[in-house]
Specification:
Helix content is about 30%, strand content about 35%. With about 325 residues, the chain is α+β, with helices and mostly antiparallel strands. Helix 2 (about 50-60) crosses helix 3 and helix 6 (about 155-170) packs across helix 7 (about 175-185). The protein is globular and about 55 Å long.
Length: about 325
């Protein structure tokens, strides 16, 4: 087997990222990488979930530097590919990103520039940071399964909005404005759900909830700050819970989603813990890093400082 240089990068490129912005901009990014004399190879994803398979293949070939050229969903797949490599610690992989997605929320946490030249500069500088990851178990089509995430997971109303946004993305329509449209448009069909939430073994909430986020990092939904107290290397999951409220309250205070002041409202509770358990009488749905998944019951766990990521200033 040919030995891969310890400095060589593998670019995992999603042509569909950013509503096909990845397809349009990849030739330009490719030329910039060559001009900056980055040592790299690349693979293009062909379908949903393909990035997970690519990671397993290239790690077996010897690659230890992986860069996502895509959005938060592609990043989530690459993370799950890294975690699937059972014969190697996740901390042995260095993970970078050139953002071409619609939200790019993970990049906001680590000051990774949205301009391609700036992001490539960070790859060459290779300043790294060890961040936590989360693992959630849930049900999908009656089967118990799990998923890793490195940014924010959303439940209830947040998951509904993500699902509607993802359906349009698959049709080539999307962006932060689409997400905001569904934040308001979906209010008329959403039903509150009864839930019991345990944090580190103690019941923290029992009642009807509107929406909930569990965060490693702070941002989701194209710049919203729904878990403003999240610290990505403190070994804790941050929880923001919005209790049952009127639709008018949601409209009135939507701007507070963007500056973190949402948590000051009396309808909002926040928690921190290593283990979060959620059960409900009906199905509460889930998304992680913007990817629509399954439904309750959920068990969230934190994996402290298990990911080596390339960070900005």
């Amino acid at each position: 087997m040919q030995t891969v240089s310890s400095e060589k990068w593998l670019m995992i490129v999603n042509p569909n990222a950013g509503v096909k912005k990845g397809l349009k901009d990849w030739p330009k990014i490719l030329e910039m990488l060559r001009q900056r004399k980055v040592d790299f190879d690349f693979r293009l994803t062909e379908s949903r979930g393909h990035a997970i398979q690519i990671v397993c293949e290239v790690v077996a070939l010897g690659f230890r530097n992986l860069c996502v050229v895509g959005g938060d969903g592609t990043l989530n797949e690459v993370l799950n590919g890294i975690m699937a490599c059972k014969n190697m610690a996740s901390s042995e992989i260095t993970l970078g990103m050139i953002p071409v997605g619609t939200g790019n929320d993970w990049c906001r946490m680590f000051n990774i520039p949205f301009d391609y030249d700036g992001a490539i500069h960070l790859l060459l500088r290779k300043k790294t940071f060890m961040q936590d990851a989360g693992r959630v178990t849930y049900y999908h089509d009656g089967q118990h399964t799990e998923r890793y995430f490195m940014n924010v997971a959303g439940m209830g109303y947040d998951a509904l909005v993500a699902k509607k946004t993802n359906i349009l993305k698959e049709k080539g329509i999307g962006g932060p404005l689409t997400y905001m449209y569904f934040v308001f448009a979906s209010l008329f069909q959403y039903k509150f759900m009864d839930a019991v939430i345990e944090v580190d073994g103690a019941i923290a909430f029992r009642g009807e909830l509107f929406s909930m986020n569990v965060g490693i990092c702070k941002f989701n939904g194209g710049g919203m700050m729904q878990v403003p107290f999240a610290i990505p290397d403190d070994g804790l999951l941050d929880v923001t819970l919005i209790k049952k409220t009127s639709k008018w309250m949601v409209v009135r205070y939507a701007r507070k989603l963007f500056d973190g002041s949402l948590v000051d409202l009396p309808i909002v509770d926040t928690f921190k813990g290593e283990n979060i358990r959620i059960r409900s009488t009906g199905k509460i749905y889930l998304e992680t890093d913007g990817e629509s998944l399954g439904y309750t019951p959920f068990v969230f766990e934190v994996l402290p400082r298990c990911l080596k990521i390339v960070t900005g200033n």
